[in-house]
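Data card: per-record layout.
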Amino acid sequence: MALTGIQIFKLLPKTNCGDCKFPTCLAFAMALAAGKTELDLCPHVTEEAREELSEASAPPIRQVTTGTGDYEVRIGGETVMFRHEKTFFNKPGFAILIEDTMKNNEVERRFSQLNSCQYERVGLILRPEMVALKDTGNKENFIALVKRASTEPYSIILMSSDTSVMKEALEILKTKKPLIYAANHENYESFGSLSKEYNCPLTAKGNGLEDTASLVEKLINIGLKDLVIDTSTRTLKEGFQEQVIIRRAALAGKYKPLGFPTITFPCEMTDNLMKETVIASCFVAKYAGIIVLSDFQGESIFPLLLQRLNIYTDPQRPMTTQEGIYPINNPDAASPVLVTCNFSLTYFIVSSEIENSRIPSWLCVMDTEGLSVMTAWAAGKLAGDLVGTFIKGCGIVEKVERKRIVIPGYAAAILGDLEEELPGWEIIIGPREAAHIPTFLKTMKQQ
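The structure for this 447-residue chain is written out next.
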């Protein structure tokens, strides 16, 4: 960023009001300098300071938003070449291609794939978010396709080179903020006008890096900011190289004509779905904003969704589960109470084993800052006094009559301190391995 935290702080109102959810203006300034918050969260900054800070704090790759609601897709906004340097912020969107030449049953199948290809993993729903509608010259069919898509919540890419057809499609989807694909050197003025009129992001499609940069400059000059780049390259080697060059030019070279997210088309690089999946995986890693695929099949889209989750999870922050009480198998006042940490993987393994046991239980998840049981105990985050305070304050006392609490086997050392902290409770040391929980709970039930 162009400004340091202290430089940003000097431009803030210094009220320490907390409206931005930070305790002080200095803390907010430091977070803004690190790219961890947005300037809009401060309601008291002056317009002059806002203008200066907006320019200074803007990421070198512009963030672009398409779609609305739960399927809104944010792309761009990145600040580093490698996620371990900081993190990646906005994961790429996956789009399924639907052409106006397809029969109704095939169209419906592809829409249904967006619903069926959804997977739960560590408390998150992994799913594709976008549909790309392609006009091949049959206006009536294309508009019918647009109307069909308007009834769905997905983010939409409109692919047409005809300005009049694009305008009619945008009129149907004007509340859904679709991505317009694509402006070129011949139609950029008319497509740019549509982008302004309907407040939709626009794709700039050039022929190679230099030609695309030239087109982007034209679009910037007519007042457009929310742009997506397509260099028209449809081979893996050149496409991969260009993605890296674009990212490096924007971050290291501060080259504004390439400071925008990109769209790629693995669906046009091969007619083999498995090869297409491999190509798409390369663009997930480096550095596509949107990836358009010919089809979604479970064996192809799930690995891509999982890869995207791994890459776009902040490596400096563990995945956590919200602190609280989780009833499993419809527990009652006589059901046992188990305690675990809020590391997501630990929670989901423990909760699934309790569920498999079919023993009604209360699972109390304690905030250990995302650390696993053994690590949290070693770091003093799962100490006896802290667990005791958590149990007394979380509300579980009011839910049970028989006061039995099971602590993880790896935290057995906190037994003495916890007994002092919770007089009247029966403290039981549970198994070390989650796989032994079902047998353990069934044995407890017989006692």
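Known properties of this structure: The first strand starts at residue 64 and ends at 66. The two ends are 63 Å apart (CA to CA).

See the next section for split statistics.
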